[in-house]
Amino acid sequence: MDMSNKYTTYFFLIFIVLFVFIFFSFVTKNHHNLTSSDYNVYALPMPNKLDFSGEIIPLNISDVRERMDRELLVNTYWQSNGFLLFKRAHKYFPIIEPILKSNGIPDDFKYLALIESGLQNVTSPAGAKGFWQIMKTTAKEFGLEVNQNVDERNNLILSTKVACEYLLKAKERFGSWTLAAASYNAGMNGIATELKRQSVDNYYDMLLSQETGRYVFRILALKEITNNPMRYGFNYTDTDLYNHPPTFSVEIDTAVSDLVQFANGFGINYKQLKIHNPWLRETFLNNKSRKKYTIEIPKINGVESKN
Questions:
Q1: How far apart are CA 213 and CA 67, in angstroms?
Q2: CA 88 to centroid of chain Cα atoms
Q3: Radius of gyration of the chain (CA)
Q4: Candidates 3.90.1300.10, 1.10.1200.10, 3.90.190.20, 1.10.530.10; correct CATH number of 51-240?
Q5: Residue 48: what are its φ and ψ, rounded to 5°?
Q6: Max CA pair span of the chain
Q7: For residues 209 and 187, is the Cβ–Cβ distance under 8 A?
Q8: Is 144:164 a contact under the CB 8 Å cutoff?
Q9: Could you read off the pLDDT tens digit of each residue along the chain, which spans 307 residues?
Q10: Which of 12, 40, 102, 171 has the most beta carbons within 10 angstroms of its beta carbon?
Q11: Gap between the Cα atoms of 115 and 134, Å rounded
């Protein structure tokens, strides 16, 4: 082989190798820059001060700070759930807030309902129901009707009043709104037992089950994020939120043999009736005791319809 051709071939091969090396280095570097700038996950700065119903959270205690950090992280980065909670809160908090206020319950307890049910009429594995997740025995103890025909745990107004009664009793017993909130999860006897057994007098010094140990911190996290959505990366306008349709109340003290026809008489369908009155369990209302019920009827185009 001619030496000049041989060297030309060597130089060509070296050039190809260098070109491939530089090309892949460029692609790799730019791919890294692209992915790192497209999506970032940040640690969350801890607020300087947090309180629940005016009771200061002792963030200077290391495990308290870590538990608070956990709930802020979990609830911030579960973005889809966060948006749904914002939307439902805008719809239902205006109903809950005045009931809390009129019963002397701090406004912060609306976030308890938010973590209990996500502001939905759900049923827990243990059988608790409604926005406030009330057990059947507790419901009956506080005067709610629960049977095959009616379940007033799914009545937002009535169940909120029962939650207020419970929380007032708990506050009277423990002297603390934080312990009252914890007792909503663990029961008053459960909290009283642990306070005595562990010789402590507050929630943050108790060693509790994981669920109860996280409970108040979850309330605090939702309070903090809901009140400062943009600080935690949630961007929306009021038009993105849900609104509660205007309704008017109809009182009845007789049986209703066909709720489908009853709904039609107000110019709505059975689905609309059930959406606004989820405590009605069947397509009829027995009402053998001639009890007075309040049924919510959605306004048609903002106007009350007459039966």
A1: 9
A2: 8
A3: 29
A4: 1.10.530.10
A5: -65, -30
A6: 114
A7: no
A8: no
A9: 444 555 455 555 565 655 555 555 554 555 445 455 567 888 899 999 999 999 999 999 999 999 999 999 999 999 999 999 999 999 999 999 999 999 999 999 999 999 999 999 999 999 999 999 999 999 999 999 999 999 999 999 999 999 999 999 999 999 999 999 999 999 999 999 999 999 999 999 999 999 999 999 999 999 999 999 999 999 999 999 999 999 999 999 999 999 999 999 999 999 999 999 999 999 999 998 999 999 999 998 755 666 6
A10: 171
A11: 13
Look up tokens 């669920």; give the residue.
211
The set of residues, in sequence order, having a beta carbon less than 8 Å from that of 167 and lying 6+ positions away, is 105, 109, 177, 180, 181, 184
One-letter identity of residue 259: L
Enumerate residues 6+ apart whose C-beta is below 8 A from 171: 177, 180
DSSP category for residue 144: -
Residues 206 and 64 sit within 8 Å (Cβ to Cβ): no
Tell me the sheet residues that pair with 303: 300
Take residue 143 and report the two structure tokens written for it: 């005067």
User: Among positive and negative, which fits the CA dihedral 186, 189, 195, 198?
Assistant: negative
Sign of the Cα torsion 48, 51, 54, 56 reads negative
Residue type, 11: F
Give the total residue count for the chain.
307
What the block records as the tokens of 79 is 């973005």
| Helix orientation angle between 79-102 and 156-174, rounded to the nearest 10 degrees | 80
Only one residue has tokens 């025995």, namely 137
Q: Which amino acid is at 38?
A: D
In 3D space, the residue among 103, 94, 127, 128 whose CA is nearest the CA of residue 180 turns out to be 103
- Close Cβ partners of 83 (under 8 Å, ≥ 6 residues apart): 234, 236
